């Protein structure tokens, strides 16, 4: 029979996790001030009351810090979209979902860069952190399925539409709502196109004129 962990061990782990959370929160603050790639581990250690070597007890590299920030940013996104109210109209719910994604992107440019743009050379999220991103992706697929969109190609097109809206918002109107206000129109156009391609049969390929008139060639049998 396995004995329960000692209370002292539990408290030590809780303190460790709490300190990690503090470090991540301060890392976001520094990223917003200096830029995502310019986070200084020395400055970060100073801000959280540690010496720089002690920081490695929590993150063994700067890429490990980015990995934890990646998971944290996706958890923030999941929290935001999970609070959206239920709608009887799945199309209206999908529009609201995209509007919220665009607002989320505009609210924090560096977070958007880490989650959706490859701005850090050499950074690839770990399996554990990417699983959080996939959890968000599953929420999006559920919204699409409720609106009648399940074809993989249509899903890919949806991600392209949303990426365009969010990237434009971040690049050209950070903190504003210019592309948030266009989200409803963009989603309506997307859904109309998906519906149109379902009902329009693919054009048949007509044979060329010479194929219609040319007589088949008789192949001689070798003697």
Automatic annotation (TrEMBL):
Sample GO molecular function, one term: transcription cis-regulatory region binding
Keyword set, alphabetical order: DNA-binding, Transcription, Transcription regulation
Segments of the chain annotated as binding DNA: 40-59
Region Disordered, annotated ranges: 196-223
Extent of Polar residues compositional bias: 212-223
Stored SUPFAM superfamilies: Homeodomain-like (SSF46689)
Domain HTH tetR-type: residue ranges: 17-77
Keyword DNA-binding recorded: yes
Gene3D superfamilies in UniProt: Tetracycline Repressor, domain 2
Protein name according to UniProt: Putative Transcriptional regulator, TetR family
Source organism (scientific name): Candidatus Neomicrothrix parvicella RN1
């Amino acid at each position: 029979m396995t004995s329960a962990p000692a209370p002292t061990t539990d408290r030590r782990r809780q303190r460790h996790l709490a300190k990690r959370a503090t470090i991540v929160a301060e890392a976001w603050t520094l990223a917003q001030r200096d830029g995502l790639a310019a986070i200084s581990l020395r400055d970060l250690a100073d801000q959280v009351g540690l010496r720089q070597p002690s920081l490695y007890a929590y993150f063994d590299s700067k890429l490990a810090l980015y990995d934890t920030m990646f998971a944290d940013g996706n958890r923030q996104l999941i929290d935001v979209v999970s609070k959206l109210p239920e709608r009887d109209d799945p199309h209206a719910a999908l529009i609201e979902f995209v509007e919220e994604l665009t607002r989320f992107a505009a609210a924090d440019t560096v977070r958007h860069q880490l989650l959706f743009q490859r701005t850090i050379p050499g950074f690839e999220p770990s399996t554990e952190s990417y699983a959080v991103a996939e959890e968000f992706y599953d929420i999006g697929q559920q919204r699409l399925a409720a609106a009648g969109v399940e074809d993989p190609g249509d899903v890919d097109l949806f991600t392209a539409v949303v990426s365009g809206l969010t990237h434009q918002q971040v690049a050209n109107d950070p903190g504003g709502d210019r592309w948030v206000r266009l989200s409803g129109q963009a989603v309506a156009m997307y859904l109309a196109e998906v519906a149109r391609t379902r009902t329009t049969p693919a054009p048949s390929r007509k044979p060329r004129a010479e194929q219609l008139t040319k007589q088949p060639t008789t192949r001689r049998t070798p003697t």
